[in-house]
Amino acid sequence: ELRIPDSQADKQFWEEKGITRILVVDSSEEVCDSVRMRMEDMGVQVDTALEVEGAEKLLHDGSLADRDYQVILLDLALPNKGSVHMAETARKVLPGAMLLFLVDCDGARTEEVHHMENTGILTKPFFVAAFKEKIRELRADHGTKESTVESGEDSLEGLCFLAAEDNEINAEILKELLEMEGAVCEIVENGQAALERFAAAAAGEFDAILMDVQMPVMNGYDASRAIRQLKREDAKIIPIIAMTANAFAEDEKEALAAGMDVHLAKPIDVEILKKVIQRYVVENGSDKKFV
Fold it and tell me: Helix, strand, or coil here: 19?
């Protein structure tokens, strides 16, 4: 049995979900470019519009078959409730499309969209990992659940994490969040300490490594590369999750190139973290099970 390369596995996800083309409507060119760059690397074509009029033109002009969007990303902060109007238009033209409203991390008002079916909220900055989890959630909510796991199976109860975080406050928050979920978390202050602690750990002692990127002594990228090169079997398969505020596409690519499995934005959303851990721990054959 051979492990599917990460880049191929990521593309495979979108192929399996039948997602080949998406529409992004956001007044920020930077956001549009970020989504396009990351998703086109996944083999997904991205059309963008900076305002509602341009988006509606994309929906109505030409053959609908040429613009059969499976997902539409809408900036909730568009003026004059433009995102809500755009969502209503999209529902008429493409009733089966999934709608995700993009909101800033400081929290935008979302009350007006909660009643809409087949919709969700995606926090900026845009990360492929968070986008994938939202797609899974929407598919599950509409009766296409990918597995027979029962509710609660994404619990972190009984799991043990090694976390590298040089900021004491961030470390305390992370530790408390994980312990509230029933997990054990051991904190070290930099990448070098994480490397040494993992190298000295018994096989299977840790279920995953949570790795900050910017740290003194040894950063998260170098630590991840060094861990992957250790001459022990679990060094090649233990999930390494990057935790960083860096939101650029090249940061995500660098994390994956360094041997990390997934790139999560700070502040960490524990629900997304739980889903990511469930996926990677189960796929890598951890001896510990989710309950």
Answer: coil
CA end-to-end distance (rounded Å), the chain: 27
Among 180, 227, 231, 176, smallest CA distance to 206 is for 227
Q: In what order do the strands lie in the sheet with 184-188?
A: 184-188, 160-164, 208-212, 240-244, 262-265
Answer whether 0.70 is exceeded by the pTM.
no
* Integer Cα distance of 212 and 202 in angstroms: 23
Peptide bond connecting 267 to the previous residue in cis, omega within 30 degrees of 0: yes
What is the DSSP secondary-structure string of 50-111? SSHHHHHHHHHSS-GGGG--SEEEEETT-GGGHHHHHHHHHHHH-TT-EEEEEE-TT----G
Q: Which residues contact 105 (CB under 8 A, 6 or more apart)?
A: 123, 124, 125, 265, 267
21 token code pair: 């083309």
**Predicted pLDDT of residue 279:** 74
- CA angle 100/106/107 to nearest 5° reads 50
Map residue 197 onto helix, strand or coil. Answer: helix
Half-sphere exposure of 27 (CA within 13 A, CB side): 12
> Could you give the 3-state DSSP secondary structure of residue 246?
coil
Q: 């929906």: which residue's tokens?
A: 59
Torsion of Cα atoms, 221 then 222 then 223 then 228, to 10°: 90
Handedness of CA 119, 125, 126, 127 (dihedral sign): negative
Q: Of residues 201 and 4, which shows the higher confidence score? A: 201
For 108-175, the DSSP string reads ---GGGTTSTTEEEEESSP-HHHHHHHHHHHHHHTT--SS-PPTTTT--TT-EEEEE---HHHHHHHH
Q: What is the pLDDT of residues 108-118, one digit of tens each?
A: 555 555 556 67
